[in-house]
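WARN retry 2 of 3 for item q-0093 after timeout on previous attempt; input resubmitted unchanged.
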Amino acid sequence: MDTDEELIARLAEDPSALGPLYDRHGRLVYGLALAILRNADEAQDLTQEVFLSLCGSELYNPARGTVGAFLTTLVRSRGIDRLRRRTRRTRLLRAQWEAAPPAVQPPLPQDRVALAECAGRVRAALGDLPETERRALEMAYYQGLTQAEIADDLGVPLGTVKSWCRRGLIALKRTLGDLVEP
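OK item q-0093 returned
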């Protein structure tokens, strides 16, 4: 029967040497991981990570202690790292939650009345515009078309559509200027 040190030395060429190591130390590693993390899934992940880290690496130094002590140290340090990441992640999520804007509340009755009055004034101001200017602005803002698309749809030059939009917006600003916050 091979010693732990011999199995670790063989791991570079023979990955099957990991099996006996796991059989000998798996319960210890998993138990410690579970005690640190207090989560079975995370403890299993950490156990796998620790044993796989032995493959193809020169981490273990027999002069510094037994394989069991080395695995215990590895589980402890990596488990604490996971706890720190979890704590940091929780802190970041909490900060994002606290920084999030409050949920949108339904408008108050007086706000609904004011909004309806503003909407009525905007519709009236649009109705007072010349047909070409009104139609160009409605296509741009209500249908989301670009000025080039409006020109294609109406069969007019792009410069004409730009002029209609500009004159319409200037007229609306003049009529509805008191609705705009300074």
